[in-house]
Amino acid sequence: MVTVIVLVVVLLLVLAGVAAAALLAPRRRRVVPPSGGRGSTVLQPGVDYPPGVGDDVTVPRDTPTRTLEDLPLPGVEEPLEVDETPELLLERPEPVAGRLVRLRARLSRSQTSLGRGLLALLSRDSLDEDTWEEVEDTLLTADVGVGPTQELVERLRTRVRVLGTRSPEQVRDLLREELLALVAPELDRTLATTRHPDGRPAVVLVVGVNGTGKTTTVGKLARVLVSEEKDVVLGAADTFRAAAAEQLTTWGERVGVPTVRGPEGADPASVAYDALEQGTQLEADVVLVDTAGRLQNKVGLMDELGKVKRVLERKGPVDEVLLVLDATTGQNGLIQARVFSEVVAVTGIVLTKLDGTAKGGIVVAVQRELGVPVKLVGLGEGPDDLAPFEPAAFVDALVE
Ligand SMILES: Nc1nc2c(ncn2[C@@H]2O[C@H](COP(=O)(O)OP(=O)(O)OP(=O)(O)O)[C@@H](O)[C@H]2O)c(=O)[nH]1
């Protein structure tokens, strides 16, 4: 009997406790916003959900009333917010095919002394030692480099001897063949810009000394990729120079490509990583990362570049490391190339400002130096003045 009374009392106490808890608990329906992006905005009681106990029900007068479509659905990930330029205002980049042909006039104009100079020398009736020395000087002046120059002169000497009398056409063909061999047409110059099967975008890291044209090249390359119908995301990891991020954003906006940037002086590696994250979320094909122009003798800065690469590699290997070299700096460019290749494994070279120098021979020298192909050439300041490097078209422009 006593046991029954105790059980009844315990039961009554439990019921009373439950009732009290139900009365005291705030009647608030929690709406959990999806993480990140627009979903992280603060939800307003009375706007987004019915006000509960303890909620401030006074809604600011200027709070926009949200429609049903605006409300985030539970469990539905919202897309990342990307500023988009209206379709009508976007520029249409020029197709890539045949660009080098369009820019050929510029190339041949700047390389007159190399191409025409050699043709004139080799067309002389008798090729004495002085003439061969002039041939050698012409090649060296154009930055072909000592080794390749000696090789070429040797081969030309042999072939001219075999030919005997030569027609201008024969001389041209001979020179074209030999210069082409020197430019190594067999090298693979394709750019790795295809999304990986696991959905990861291709990552292209662009490095080089300041002023060589890195930011401009990233902007131009974005246009090349857009013209190939690729989805691109830009990473402004040049946090050293504030204007660089601005410059890159403008390049992107012109063709509707988003740019990820950080505050001035931010860690470049974290900006690069964020760009890759966004690229992945937006299902982009390629993420192009611009880096700060850094002097090759600043060990700390070079370390920083290594860090950018390592951080990107947490998601998978970096697909391309493009080293931007200014063709007008000649041998100095070679020194830079050597230093950069020690820090990051360079996969391709972009030779800029070839329109403003007679030193086109640097193509040969830098490929020899690094064992890496020149993949792109800059031939002007215009937005579409970047062309894939085509050895045959390049040599034709020299000897035409
Ligand atoms: N003529 C010519 N000028 C070029 C070419 N490429 C780049 N430039 C110019 O070179 C200058 C420097 O280019 P940037 O892209 O700002 O150089 P950067 O390497 O990014 O410089 P930092 O951001 O300081 O590291 C700009 O005035 C470009 O217009 C080219 O192929 N031909």
Plain-language structure description:
The structure is a single chain. The protein folds into 2 domains: 81 residues, Up-down Bundle (Four Helix Bundle (Hemerythrin (Met), subunit A)); 204 residues, P-loop containing nucleotide triphosphate hydrolases (Rossmann fold, 3-Layer(aba) Sandwich), CATH 3.40.50. Helices cover 44% and strands 10% of the residues. It is built from 14 helices and 8 strands. An 8-stranded mixed β-sheet has the order 3-2-4-1-5-6-7-8, with helices on both faces. The longest helix is centred in the N-terminal third of the chain and has 23 residues. The radius of gyration is 32 Å and the shape is elongated. About 10% of the residues have low confidence. It binds guanosine-5'-triphosphate.
Task: Compose a concise summary of this entry.
Its EC number is 3.6.5.4. With 400 residues, this protein is of the alpha/beta class.
SSE map:
Layout: H1 2-24, H2 99-102, H3 104-110, H4 112-122, H5 129-141, H6 146-163, H7 168-182, E1 202-207, H8 214-227, E2 232-237, H9 242-254, E3 259-261, H10 268-281, E4 286-291, H11 299-312, E5 320-326, H12 331-343, E6 348-352, H13 362-370, E7 374-378, E8 386-388, H14 391-399
Parallel strand pairs: 1-4, 1-5, 2-3, 2-4, 5-6, 6-7
Antiparallel strand pairs: 7-8
Helix pairs in contact: 3-14, 4-5, 4-14, 5-6, 6-7, 7-14, 8-9, 10-11, 12-13
The structure holds guanosine-5'-triphosphate (GTP).
Guanosine-5'-triphosphate is lined by residues 208, 210-216, 238, 241, 244, 293, 352-353, 355-356, 378-381, 385.
